[in-house]
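Milestone M4 deliverable, item 7.
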Amino acid sequence: MATPVIYHIDVNSAFLSWEAHHRLHDLGESLDLREIPSIIGGDRDTRHGIVLAKSVPAKKYGIVTGEPIVKALQKCPNLYIAKPDFSVYVKRSRAFIALLKRYAPVVEQFSIDEAFCDMTGTAGLYGDLVSFAHKIKDEIKNELGFTVNIGISSNRLLAKTASDFQKPDRVHTLFPDELSEKFWPLAVDDLLYVGRSTSTRLHALGIHTIGELAHIDESILISLFKKQGIFLHEAANGIDTAPVTDEPSASKSYGNSTTLPADLTNGAEAERVLLALCEKVGARIRADRAYISMVSVTIKDTDLKSRSRQGQLTAPDNTTEQIFFAARKLFYELWDGSPIRLLGVSTGHVTNDDCFQYDLFDTGKREKLTKLNAAVDEIRTRYGNSALKRACFLEKR
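Output delivered:
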């Protein structure tokens, strides 16, 4: 039986890279956003919104994803701000996945800008699979105009961890025999799916590295973390049995959250953060040609206590507007006015079928909104993001 070989391929600074390539090659502009301090997100004139993506030069100023535009401008007054054009990003994402499917027997799109490829048994076709990863990386760069990192291992967890090593435009391995050298010295905070609350508890127990976690008796972790203790022990030892699959999962969900650099107390600003999150989530859903019918909002306060509320849509949908309208309603039902440390939006009840039952009182709103989104996307693809703007991005709430 062939030894498993899994690639995790992650686009470097996806939204900014895709925006830069679109402007250079589709619009004929000469300025490369990747070479100057620049970000995607927000509006310079109103100084509203948050940073969705940043260039390497912007990172040198200390600009971080998720922080308000006003703070980013304080760090770099000459910062170039480009508004997001998600129709372009979805198009680039589809081209990215299509290229991977030329070579990988199984491609699982994990998000709009990353995918797992199960390359098991393909060495007979492609030769050494580490060398072949370099070929795919270079082909993406030459053909599609952006760079990626590729992590290679025998399972998903280790492959994804490897792809986060030094960036950009790199190939890294993290096989089981490399755990002690490359994996165990990492901070426990770097372990996939370990959040701030869990990492804080681990640090309080004197567990600071993945290696220290890996060598704790599993029974102790179970007594402290219940079922999560089993996951923590297995993950720290590089164990992950989840297969790479290209089959849509009925239980799949799409979500995004952001930890705010400063506590948020203004409802209008919270709405703008929610809108940015919904744009990312909606782009991922549309990239999969999927539809969702459940929306959930999570708020974490300054004491790191989380509260969530979910609601059902009247019909499956994938438009940013409907996701945002639902999220905004849930937010105000949930928020008690206390300072917000984290905001999250997630969706569920995923289907690839957009069939639904017409509501007599809907008066065709859903169909009109879907057509409007399609028209807006087409205009922006042809003439650029500035050719047409959504009112919801311009309105001051």
